[in-house]
Write a structure and sequence with these properties.
This protein is mainly β. The chain is 12% helix and 35% strand. The longest helix is centred in the first third of the chain and has 21 residues.
């Protein structure tokens, strides 16, 4: 059933492209193709210095031809001290790719963990097994599938700063015994 559905989807897309190309005045029109999406999110725990900047690099490569050039260039995503993205934190990639997120600047965190969650689209709605999967916490794998979305969450843990206690104050007292 899944193979039949994929064949129908590919055939419909092919006929759609032929139909668009055959429309007068359609020369040069780019037809957007369905893609897969990778979103990188940041979480922080503990006390983070306010000027901290986090950097995550996302690299995607072909699963079909690992020696081939990357289908998209590496993307560097930056986050502020609260974990809010300060650059675009999503990218799109085609079927047959695998994307890995690696934090390159952790802001001095004591530890970093990764978690991946995959939401399957229409061409990958039957399973398991699914064709789009998380491989470990830092990698999203998109087999023969379009329309899947992977969210990779990078969590940095910082120590919690102890509460500030006031410094001890000097006490002056008169001696009780004089003599």
């Amino acid at each position: 059933m899944r193979s039949t559905f994929r064949i129908l989807v590919v055939a419909a897309m092919a006929f759609g492209v032929v139909g668009v190309a055959a429309v007068p005045g359609g020369a040069g029109t780019i037809v957007p193709q369905p893609v897969n999406t990778v979103i990188v999110e940041k979480e922080v725990t503990g006390t983070v210095p306010t000027d901290t900047v986090f950097t995550v690099a996302v690299t995607c490569g072909s699963q079909i031809n690992p020696g081939a050039a990357a289908p998209i260039p590496d993307q560097v995503i930056t986050f502020d001290a609260t974990g809010t993205p300060t650059s675009d934190n999503s990218l799109t990639t085609s079927a047959g790719t695998e994307c890995t997120a690696v934090e390159t600047a952790s802001g001095g965190a004591t530890s970093t963990t990764y978690a991946c969650d995959m939401v399957h689209g229409l061409t990958d709605d039957e399973g398991p097994p699914f064709l789009g999967n998380c491989v470990g916490g830092d990698t999203a794998s998109f087999g023969d599938v379009i329309g899947d979305t992977a969210t990779i969450t990078v969590t940095n843990n910082f120590p919690t700063a102890p509460p500030l206690t006031p410094a001890a104050q000097a006490v002056q007292a008169a001696p009780a015994f004089t003599g």
